[in-house]
Every structure is written in C-alpha cells, then in structure tokens.
Amino acid sequence: MSVTVRFAPSPTGHLHIGNTRTALVNWLFARKMGGRFLLRLDDTDEKRSTAAFAEAIQRDLAWLGLAHDLFDRQSERVARYDAIAQTLKADGRLYACYETAEELERKRKRQLLRGLPPIYDREGLTLSDVDRAALEAQGRRAHWRFKLQPMNVVWDDCVRGLQSVDCASLSDPVLVREDGSYLYTLPSVVDDFDHGISHVIRGEDHVANTAPQIQLFEALGATPPEFAHHSLLVNVEGGRLSKRDGALSLKDMAEAGFEAMAVASYAATIGTSDPIEPHQTMSSLVAQFDFAKLSRSPARFDPEELALVNARLLHGRDHGAVEGELTRLGVGGGEAFWLAVRGNLGTLADARTWWDVARGPVEPVIGDEAEYCAAAAGLLPPEPWDGNSWSQWTASVSEATNRKGRALFAPLRFALTGQGRGPELAAFLPFIGRQRAEARLNGRKV
Ligand code: GLU
Known about the structure:
Blueprint: E1 4-7, H1 17-32, E2 36-41, H2 51-64, E3 70-73, H3 78-90, E4 94-97, H4 101-113, H5 123-126, H6 129-137, E5 143-146, E6 152-157, E7 161-166, E8 174-176, H7 185-194, E9 199-203, H8 207-219, E10 226-230, E11 233-235, H9 250-255, H10 260-269, H11 282-288, E12 299-301, H12 303-315, H13 319-329, H14 334-341, H15 350-359, H16 370-378, H17 389-401, H18 405-417, H19 425-441
Parallel strand pairs: 1-2, 2-3, 9-10, 11-12
Antiparallel strand pairs: 4-5, 5-8, 6-7
The structure holds glutamic acid.
C-alpha cells in the first residue's frame, strides 16, 4: 500500500509543541514507509487565517527539518467543496436547518431536563418546501447538516486499537454555515479523498470527529483511510499546557537557542516507550518510529527536560554540524575549541561565552590565594601549548607547593577563568594562552 499522510494546521497561530508532535509523527511515518507527506493549510476560516501565519508555519517546519512532498491550501478548493455539497444535497445526505444558536440551546436544555441525550432532533428533515420558503421569507438562512446513518462505525486505530462509535448517539454534524462557508469536516474529508490520503494521523481531540468523517467518506463513494490518534500533551502537573509552561511555540524555542534536532528528538520521544534522548539525525528518529510505541496516556511537556535534551545533543555534536553557526557567533578555535567546550554547553550560544572567557577580558578570582597563584604563574611552561601542557604544569606546581586535588586545582581555575566550573582545563588552557594565563594568575584582568 502506498502511504500518503498529511499535516493540516490552520494558519491561525504559530506551530507549538503540540501540533509539532502531530507533524512529526506524520512525517516520521511517511519517511519510514517510503511514503509522501502533504502539508495542507486548513485556511477556510477567513477571519482567523493569515498569510503571515501560513508563512511562519512553513518556515518553522523547514527549520525543524520536515520537508513536505506535496502542498495544498483549502482556500483554493472551495469550488470543489461546493460541487460535493451539491451532490450530498441531491442525495439527501445534506439537509437544511434553520434553528438559531439560542433555539438549539433551548432544545438541548429541554432534552437534558427530560433525561434525554442532547442530540439534534432532526427538525430540519421534517420541513416541507413551503416551511422552508416561509423561513427564508422571514430572512432566515439555512445551515446544512450531514445526515448520519444510525449504525455502529468501527475502525482499527493505529494507536488506540479497535474503536466503535454508535452514530445513533451523535448529532448530525453541521457541514455548511448560514453564510455558505464550510466547517472543518467536509473540506477535510474531500481533501483526504482527493489527495489519496492513506493514513489520517492527528491528536486524540479529533477522535470524536472520526465516525462522522468515515460516514462522509462512504457517502462520497470512497474507502476511508486508516486513522491514528495520538494522545495530547499536558504540563508537568498533568494540566492543560499554557504559556506559563515555558516556550511552547517553535519560534520561541528557536529564539531560546534550542537546536532543531533537540526539539525534534524531544517531540518525537515524549509519550512513547522510547527513552527521551537526543538523536543527532532525523534518520535515527525515522528508524525507531513505530505506532506501537505511542502511549495512550497524555505526554508530559517538561521544559527542563527539553533543555537537558538540548544540552546532551550539543555534548555529542560533531564540529561539522555546528561549524557555520559557530562562525556566525564569532567563536574561533576550530574543532579543538569545540571539543574543549561542547560538554559544558546548555545552548550553542554558550560556546561564545566560553570563547570570551578564553580570549578575555576576564576578572580573575584570586581571593587569599595570591601567593600560590603567583608561584604557579612562575612555573608556566613555555609555549607552544597542547593538551599535555596543563598536566605538566600542574605536576610541577604540585611538586613545588605540595598541594593536591582541590587545593591544587580550584584556585588555578578561579584565577584563569574567573569561575569555579567550566571545561576541562587541559583542553581549554591552550586557548587562554601563556600571556593571558600569567597575567590572570597575577590578578590582572586580561
Ligand atoms: N485543521 C485541523 C486541526 O488543526 C486538522 C485536523 C485533522 O488532522 O483532521 O485541528
């Protein structure tokens, strides 16, 4: 079977970690199966969709590394939806209703009061041509509902397993509004049909739409696709995600300095049985993708975990993968400097911070170790320095001062870098160089 999937965001906001997961699961599955990935903009809501968001979505997906094979936007396909709506009306599957929102709400309350399920009573179906003409004459406009068959709809969800929904317990969904615009269901099904979508992969907030959509596929004479509904994201406390839970949009994550591969690794592994860990390449994520690994319980979004994945990704990153970015940040020292500092980075920008520590100016922290540091300065070996210079130097300092361990090393680190923690000095010292090292050990800011 040839696989075609689609990611179908509405361009009404920026991509966030939630729909990024949906995009990724679709993309990974397509790549795994040698299939195609369609980016479809669900932009029928003219009031809320903007060209700027449409562009931002494409930019953010490209940043993440999710190239699409096909592209479409719903706003250009309205004539097709109109034609399908006409057919459904002719077949008696789409029928006109005239209730206002308030009338529907009154009906709902009355049903609940009688202990009945609040399902639309299909009054629209009982209207004669004369009734309809009279309503139209009052200035009322019809909205259109899809007539569901009162039967069980069953599908084998790739994530949730066998699902069965009794459509007799559902209201006939509204497909067309009073102003003739379409709600999401009809355009989505028509597009999935026309694009030959083999698998609809999306968040489980759409589970309730699936049975009516399957009936709509069937009404169009189409075989419904497979469905996969992944669980949704919650915050660390298990509650709804909100802005307070940290950088949620891809844009914010990029601005916070997170690597695209860290975000992709995190988004692809939370809520799965795989360990949450950095992957250096997309192909590594593709290789391990499997619907069977997706958990049915909500996935927890923890910004601290994401930060950790980002740091660990950098700790294992090859110089070649970051070379261009380091140049842009003004970080020198080539591969040797990268290898010296990568284990101490939270974000790539921290490499610049360490470069500045190496090149100065740095305010040395000497405290009451001035005598010791000055003595150590006197023992600095001549340049050129390499990875062994540090151990040669500290061995001679130890011999001359009888110091060992922390007492030997900590004052040197504080004097040389102005702080108590940082990269291994064996690798880092050559970038400070003899002149700066000697000056800092003597308490001078250079
Ligand atoms: N535009 C819909 C959404 O963003 C698409 C849902 C679907 O995948 O069917 O929720």
